[in-house]
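User: Second chain of the day. Same drill as before.
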Amino acid sequence: MKTAAITSSRDKAWLQLRVALWPDASAAEHQDDMDDQVCAPDRYVQFLVRADDGLAIGLAEASIRTDYVNGTDSSPVAFLEGLYVMPEARRQGAARALIAAVRAWASDRGCKEL
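Assistant: Same format as last time:
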């Protein structure tokens, strides 16, 4: 399993996993959100985890929030916006790997809470 940040808003695997996580939004709406996120790398991050065969099996999206986040005591705060692992790939460590990547990203930005 390999986890890596997404740097292109045209990543097809990212779009597919977003649609699976948030099926009520259209592909065009997802694409608009993806474009916005990639244009603001200081505020947003996206990670894919891939199986050994290269198939994208999981997604995590996070942001830096400076507004009040319920249950936190500091600012800025890293906020996990979304986490998804394909059903057939669950319970194999993919979500754990994604959360570790988000935690490292947040820590690098001085966040004390996630």
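The mean pLDDT is 94.

User: Great, on to the next one.
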